Recover the amino acids of this structure.
């Protein structure tokens, strides 16, 4: 019975963690560039029932001690592309992240391409962090000023600025990846940091679209289905605890007599 209590508690903890994951996904289902998270379930220690004083019919029988969840892992699948027609909105179709430079000079990475132009004519994210551009032909932040409608970006990430009636290439927007499913960790606000900065590489295995944003890759119908299943599993574990508690009460009453 003690094993039953332990198994039920571990099952409730595991299912509660799964519900937390589902809640997180549903809360961010409309977040631009959000990548859903999930957890896996792992069996805890299995014990053999073939031992002295324990009569069994099957000597190979064993009993588990419950389950636990793995660490949260992220699904980097492509989200739907949403046309906005805003020149400062960018999306990545394929692998890769935009590089962001914070005000303190540190860098981070994001799939959220809802950018804008700040007062200095720079392309920035919603928090005022600069989008990293590689300027060419002597161009830089000082002599290159963007407005909401004076630049174009092609699928390869080349940036063209309209000057004197024609478009001149002034920079490129590189995209980056890191090897491994868990190579980037979330730091909040749709930003990521690499687990190992030496593991970050430039990639061209993607297209960049201007006037388009990438929606989250959360499948709301699937999340609600998973939530119902997980809630039922949680209730079953809770019921097992209640039943075991009632049985302990019956035993204690019998002993008291």
């Amino acid at each position: 019975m003690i094993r039953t209590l332990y198994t039920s508690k571990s099952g409730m903890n595991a299912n509660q963690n799964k519900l937390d994951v589902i809640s997180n996904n549903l809360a961010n289902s409309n977040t631009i560039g959000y990548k859903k998270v999930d957890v896996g379930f792992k069996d805890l220690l299995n014990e053999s029932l073939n031992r002295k004083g324990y009569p069994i019919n099957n000597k190979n029988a064993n009993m588990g001690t419950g389950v636990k969840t793995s660490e949260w892992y992220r699904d980097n699948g492509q989200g739907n592309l949403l046309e906005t027609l805003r020149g400062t909105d960018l999306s990545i179709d394929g692998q890769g992240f935009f590089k962001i430079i914070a005000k303190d000079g540190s860098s981070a990475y994001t799939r959220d391409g809802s950018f804008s132009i700040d007062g200095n004519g720079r392309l920035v994210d919603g928090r005022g962090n600069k989008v990293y551009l590689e300027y060419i032909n002597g161009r830089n932040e000082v002599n290159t000023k963007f407005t909401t409608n004076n630049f174009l970006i092609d699928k390869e990430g080349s940036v063209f600025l309209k000057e004197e009636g024609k478009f001149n290439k002034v920079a490129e927007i590189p995209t980056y990846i890191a090897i491994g499913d868990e190579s980037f960790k979330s730091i909040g606000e749709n930003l990521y940091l690499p687990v190992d900065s030496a593991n970050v590489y430039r990639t061209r295995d993607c297209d960049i679209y201007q006037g388009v944003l990438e929606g989250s890759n959360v499948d709301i119908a699937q999340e609600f289905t998973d939530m119902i299943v997980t809630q039922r599993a949680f209730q079953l574990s809770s019921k097992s605890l209640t039943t075991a508690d009632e049985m302990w009460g019956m035993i204690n009453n019998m002993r008291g007599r």
Summary: The first strand starts at residue 37 and ends at 38. Residues 9 and 210 are 50 Å apart (CA to CA). The two ends are 21 Å apart (CA to CA). Residues 1-6 have pLDDT under 50 and may be disordered.
